């Protein structure tokens, strides 16, 4: 049973329960089995209410993506080359899931503006650029929501803190000429995409970096740049593909290291009263139970950081 929603309590948005998931293409070997999603949603529902994501409006997608590109994908007029770049064949479910995931991030953005914290159990499709889908990314959900914030005057300086193991090349390209957005990517140097874009701050790390060096990079490279930028809204891509045993990641963090990474980000947001949206981004671990533990650990870190003595929630 989903717990009740007290006033101001964070909730999580999900596109996984939409019919599009059942209709989606068979998963690639890198993706966890579908039972994983049931276990993840069960664990998440024990922590906070889950809401089905509202689909994104096409007009919002056009804030960052070319209308002609969106029209072709909407109609299924894509080439084999484009399907290979995306990572799986086009179906109507690909479009529906993209709209659902991006809608979840926009809904979480609304939550963060009101309560200080917004959560999407999916999202983080950071490889999609203005007119190109790649790397399992059709729509760039974080970029769409960041542009919605700026266009509506809801934020003046937006941080995109991308801690997925892969560089957020699509996000970097979309905001290359936008001084109101700081794109930060801490990623594996020897990993996809092999032709990287240029973020405002790129921190490429070697294979087998491990906990200590990874956390030091956050403290010594990322924290000063963020402090200098002085954002008033933040998106956090909490990729679980930094975890050891990931099929597509090589940084080899432990579960404890991933939790400490998450704790650092959420405690910073709560301490500075920074409205923050977290999206889950990548995770392809050989051991689905470890992946579930990492995902739920991110939720636990968020709730612990934003929980104040006496049961109140830190508002942004």
UniProtKB/TrEMBL annotation:
Q: Name one Pfam family in it.
A: Hist_deacetyl
Which superkingdom? Bacteria
* Molecular function GO terms recorded: histone deacetylase activity; hydrolase activity
Specify whether rRNA-binding is a keyword of the entry: no
The record's annotation in InterPro entries points to: HDAC_classIV (IPR044150), HDACs (IPR000286), His_deacetylse_dom (IPR023801), His_deacetylse_dom_sf (IPR037138), Ureohydrolase_dom_sf (IPR023696)
Coiled-coil-forming residues are none
SUPFAM superfamilies tied to this protein: Arginase/deacetylase
Gene3D superfamilies named in the record: Histone deacetylase domain
Keywords linked to the UniProt accession: Hydrolase
Q: Which GO terms describe its biological process?
A: epigenetic regulation of gene expression
Statement: the UniProt record of this protein carries the keyword Transport: no
Per the database record, which ranges form the Histone deacetylase domain? 47-287
Give the family, as the similarity comment puts it: Belongs to the histone deacetylase family.
Q: Which named protein is this?
A: Histone deacetylase
